[in-house]
Amino acid sequence: MLARSIPLFPLPNVVLFPNVFLPLHVFEPRYRRMVADALAGDRLIGIVLLKPGWEPEYEGAPAVYPVGCTGLITHAEPLDDGRYNIVLRGLDKFRIVEESEGPGYRRAQVDVLLETIAADDRTPIRGQRRRLEALLTPAIEVGSDPVSCTVDHGRKKQDLTPLVPPSMADEDLVHTLAQYLSLEPLERQALLERDGVRARAEALVALLEMKELTTAHAWKRPRAH
After folding, report:
1. Which residues contact 225 (CB under 8 A, 6 or more apart)?
2. What's the pTM value of the predicted model, to 2 decimals?
3. How far is CA 107 from CA 11, 30, 45, 100, 195, in A?
4. What is the pLDDT of residue 142?
5. 46 has which bridge partners?
């Protein structure tokens, strides 16, 4: 594992995955300063998910999940009033070892959790990809908001534009779906914490199959009159 010190950007409903892009609007003064410092340095920010119950302590340092993902600022648009529009590209998972107070924002010493795909994992991952495509290709609806991808399991499907091109690498497809499908933040966090792409793909398939089954049962229930 590789250790490094990074600024932390805690968010209540966003989980970043490796090699997936994330647009963000940064408006709080402490995080505007964090972005400015990152742009002057290595352009890295650690995205972490806030634990439930964060609201009363938000101005301080509410609890976060220890596993997050570093993001590289690939695009930054400074606005006249000091806010930023930025785009991050997910790099590596990390685990927080120790937090420290930065210049107005949170920082942490983290262990980078490198994920490599073994040769004998490639075939199972490709099988999970085919299952994901079978579950989602006819049912993905992409909205104007890049985070608003939904899956409609209970009704007749239309022939909609695929979310990802066939040429996308298997691991990138898994991570893109995990980040942008209409999942609960804690479901995304659980997927990020899975140990490796193969386990993450299997967990994502199982999660979507469970949602499909639950939705199908809900549509079959008799309605009260």
Report:
1. none
2. 0.82
3. 14, 12, 9, 5, 25
4. 37
5. 8, 70
